[in-house]
Amino acid sequence: MNLRIRRFAVVLIVLYVILFAQLNFIQVGQKTTLDADTRNTRQTVRDFNDPRGDIRTSDDVVIATSVRNVAGSEFDWQRTYPEGDLYSAITGYFTFGYGATQIEKVQNDVLAGRTIEQQLKGFRSLFNGQDTTGTVETTIDADIQQAAKDALGNREGSVVVIEPATGAVKAMWSWPTFDTNLVAVQDSKLAGDILNYLDDIPGKPLLANAYQERYMPGSTFKVITTAAALDDGLITKESTWADESEFLPPQTIDPIQNYANKVCGGDLPEVFRRSCNTPFARTAIELGPEKMVAAATRFGIGETIPFDLPRATSSQFGDVDYFTQNLPLLGIGGFGQGNTQMVPLHMAMVAASIAHGGVMMKPYVIGATYDHDAGVLQRTVPTVWKTPMTPATSSLLTELMVGVVNEGTAKCCMRLVNGIQAAAKTGTAQLNAADEPERSHAWIIAFAPAETPKYAIVVMLKGTTAEISEGTGGTLAGPVAKKVLDVALAQ
Amino acid sequence: MTDTTNMIAARRRSTEFRLVLMAGLITAGAYTLASLGQNSVIPPRILPFLAALLLVLMSAHIGVRWLAHGADSTLLPVATLLNGIGYVMIARLSERLAGLQTTWTFVGVAAFIGVLFVIQRVNDLARYKWTFFFISAGLLLLPMLPGIGFSSGGARIWVSVGPINFQPGEFAKIALALFFAGYLADNRELIAAGTWKVGRFYLPEPRHLLPLLAAWGFSVVVMVGQKDLGSSLLFFTLFIVMVWVATEKTSFLVIGMGLFVAGATAAYFMFDHVQTRVAIWLDPWSRYQGKGYQIAQAMYALGSGGVAGTGLGLGDPTRIPEAKNDFIFAAIGEELGLFGATAILIAFLLMIGAGLRTAMRTTRPFEKLLAVGLTTILGMQAFIIIGGVIRVVPLTGITLPFVSYGGSSLVANYVLLALLIRVSDSSARRLGEIPDTATFGERFATRLAQRRIKRHPEELEAMS
Fold first, then answer.
1. Rounded CA separation A448/A354 (Å)
2. What tens digit of pLDDT does each residue of B247-287 get?
3. Residue B99 burial (CB < 10 Å; 0-12/13-18/19+)?
4. Chain A contacts of B301, Cβ < 8 Å?
5. Distance from CA of A4 to the nearest CA of B (A)
6. What mean pLDDT value characterizes chain B?
7. Distance (Å, rounded) from C-alpha B450 to C-alpha B444?
């Protein structure tokens, strides 16, 4: 019988070796696939159940934090956003089952304490029981952010304030938005229902409109056309344009008209501050498709904005072939109409590049990340993205934009407190065809103080109401920009 | 108690002592780690826990020292290690069940010592083979009785008597192994010889084979009737292996396999729940919302564990339905990783090795067959449930011996262990490794006889 017992032993060993092989197959071979399965909630639960570091503003206001839940809750920790909806486009949300967005997404490893540096330090914390979570410090200034929200009120639109010299975003607000606390709930079904509901709202509150959407920029785009023509030498400060109310470009019988069909003309400072359309249409067409497209490219148009938050979009102008076939569209593109589309953040960067001697910095909102002991993990170093114009052009543009504030389309609304001089360009982007009711976005880009710029700003109001559609960039967006800049410069 | 003059026994027992102590230390360490991982605190009741753990481990060890000091030294330590790891996982899953499992462990170890005490001459059990036949039949039928039997989780394998619920099937398998061993030890040559000529083949006389087939068929029919596929698979394997080893006829193995394939195919087409089991074995993902959920969660758990595991108390095994029971292996794989899961496999292989070594060392057919049968139960039961959890075979719900939560299973497995240790000790005596001293029963009987002779010397004369 012993021979049979020996054979039986071999059979059992083989069976157990099969078990061992299958274990390897599952725990090593299939691990990645299993972990990535969308129905596998283990990682999500672990993330959701772990402590998570704070996100705060540059002036130490906590805008996202984790608090301990009452004993007996399904999860130990609850993610909360103490400022409600004010920072939803910056922190993003952290949900159970629906992923994370914005900083909660891109800085997940730091917040959860999972970077290699934190893990190495965490070796020690194994023994003293401390958590290893990290903190993210944004570049946002809480006062400016609040001012942007207050000034915009319940009108749809975006406000972005950046520091021209660094590209640091000091405020970024858009309305409509949503309270991130609503979706950071423990009940994943409820979170899903709320997200679906928000997704169906026409104003797209879930999107950070300030950098994830693009809109027709109207006359604010004239700074780009002007910069292109000045750098090319096609025009100078002394160039003049004859008075006219419309201009017939080639390839069409449909003339380009000035705003409200006004007769408009004069030297560059005059047509710039009065925001005549025909001189810029003529300039764009004279420059030609190649040079205009090249200038747009120098400004970064057509490229995804290199922002440090996820899913930034790109501004659009058009390509050479397209404009060669459609010179009239190049003409109206020269003053920001037609197919021209700009991301609000990008327009703020355009203003900032004028303020910063013609150099456009990479925008960023994550200033630094810290480990649990406040040691710096990473600090963002300001870097140059584009050099869209020469310093001479930038100073002339500054002069032109000061003219807009003092005697031009922004005269009404951009007188800052304490006599600080601002530089600005307004825009009213007409969305309706000739025979339709008036519908337009109201824009302003500005920076201040004009001599030593500290802040550049864009304000954009979507033409969704009659009030906005009937107004102009100067009268509607101007006061918002003034209020925000006043708060910013009061510091 | 120890015979210090006997080197072999002393060495075996001191090895066992060190190994049992090690199993205890591993258990206590794991218990502390699990608590740290889960609540970041040293368990508040660590000292009473340690005391109880050492008490129960040492009782078992002293039991062996006292009652079976020549036995194999690895069986008990490996069993206590499995019991300990299982306990830590159960405690980590549910504090309430941990308390109950503690009680069951005490009862199990008491049963272990009790069996060692009562059964000192294992060969005597062969005489009661028919008793075991009826015991196993009765135990298997018990859950079918209205009033005391009830279903839980789809299988009617439970019996409720007063406040106690138990699964008689766990004990039936031991009784069945005892019956098979006893019957085959007596009749194996007759069965192997095959004097009944059918066509070109010589088959065993039906009257020799009938009791075996009856026992097997009975248990399988009852099991299928109770929807307990795991146990019927186990009984089938037990039957085939024991007949094959006893008769040394490969033909029985082939016939057995054939019967198995036929039975499995028939079951597949006859029963919906068998088809479901096979379907979720092949593809649990498409039935994720239904019956495949448990396996899918086990897969996620094992994947999440990876090579080194999440760490005790740091995983999420409560997501696996029945993690404390049939699926405890997935919970171990999650928190202890491939390393820990492999350790469990090795532990079972060690027990299989010790059990089969015991079977080979003994010369008596009954003891040999009994050791093979008991080892088959242990090794195959672990294989069937682990294989079911990790999708090597279709899932059939049975417990993982010594590891899963459950009183009946734990107590039955300690009884099984005691029998194996008893066979091992008995062969050591026969091989002369330790003196074959009289047992308590024999000494008691001798004293009684001496007293009678003193009082009634005439009886002795009459006998001679």
1. 11
2. 888 888 888 888 888 888 888 888 888 888 899 899 888 88
3. exposed
4. 42
5. 5
6. 87
7. 10
C-alpha A322/C-alpha A289 separation (Å) is 9
In terms of DSSP H, where are the helices of B313-361? 328-361
Asked if A88 is an active-site residue, the reply is no
CB contact under 8 A, B333 and A12: no
CA distance A7 to chain B (A): 10
Q: How close does chain A come to B415, measured CA to CA in Å? A: 22
C-beta atoms of A35 and B352 within 8 A: no
Catalytic residue among A66, A158, A174, A219: A219
Q: Using a CB–CB cutoff of 8 Å, tell me whether A119 touches chain B.
A: no
CA gap B419, B436 in Å, rounded: 18
At A334, the pLDDT band (50, 70, 90 cuts) reads: very high
What is the DSSP annotation of B66-111? HH-TTS-SSHHHHHHHHHHHHHHHHHHH-HHHHHHHHHHHHHHHHH
Please say whether the beta carbons of B353 and B346 come within 8 A: no
Inter-chain residue contact B301 with A42, CB threshold 8 Å: yes
Q: Taking a contact as any Cβ pair under 8 Å apart, which residues of chain B between 384 and 413 contact chain A? A: 386-387, 390-392
Q: What is the pLDDT of residue B1?
A: 46
Under DSSP, is residue A71 helix (H, G, I), strand (E, B) or coil?
A: coil
Residue B175 falls inside a structural domain: yes
Number of domains in chain B: 1
Across the interface, do B302 and A27 touch by the CB < 8 Å criterion?
Answer: yes
Q: What ipTM, to 2 d.p.?
A: 0.92
Instruction: Using pLDDT thresholds of 50, 70 and 90, give the confidence band for residue A46.
Output: confident
Q: Between residues 214 and 253 of chain B, which touch chain A (CB distance below 8 Å)?
A: 241, 244-246, 248
Neighbours of B360 (CB within 10 A): 18
Residue B74 covered by a domain:
yes
Q: pTM, whole model, 2 decimals?
A: 0.68
d(CA A87, CA B233): 62
How far apart are the C-alpha atoms of A163 and A362, rounded to whole Å? Answer: 11
Q: What pLDDT is recorded for position A130?
A: 58
For residue B400, CA distances in Å to B8, B159, B223 come to 33, 20, 18
A39, B296: Cβ pair inside 8 Å? yes
The DSSP 8-state label assigned to residue A375 in this structure reads -
The boundaries of the domain holding residue B385 are: 7-433
Cα A410 from Cα A413, distance rounded (Å): 6
CATH architecture of residue range(s) A43-139+186-210: Alpha-Beta Complex (3.90)
Residue A25: DSSP 8-state = I
Q: What homologous superfamily does CATH list for A211-489?
A: DD-peptidase/beta-lactamase superfamily (3.40.710.10)
Angle at B352 between CA B237 and CA B208, to 5 degrees: 35
Q: Which residues of A touch B299 (CB under 8 A)?
A: 26, 30, 34
- Interchain proximity B248–A4, CB inside 8 Å: yes
Q: Which of residues 239-298 of A touch B (CB under 8 A)?
A: none
Chain B contact for A1 (CB, 8 A cutoff): yes
CA A436 to chain centroid, in Å, comes to 31
Of A16, A35, A43, the CB nearest to B349: A16
Q: Where are the alpha helices (DSSP H) in A344-474?
A: 344-355, 391-407, 466-470
For residue A114, the distance in angstroms to the closest alpha carbon of chain B comes to 14
B52 touching A (Cβ < 8 Å): no
Is A27 within 8 Å of B288 when comparing Cβ atoms?
no
How many angstroms separate the CA of residue A20 from the nearest CA in chain B?
Answer: 7
CA gap A335, A284 in Å, rounded: 9
The identity of residue A47, as a single letter, is: D
Contact B383/A35, CB-based, under 8 Å? no
Q: Are B61 and B17 in contact (CB under 8 A)?
A: yes
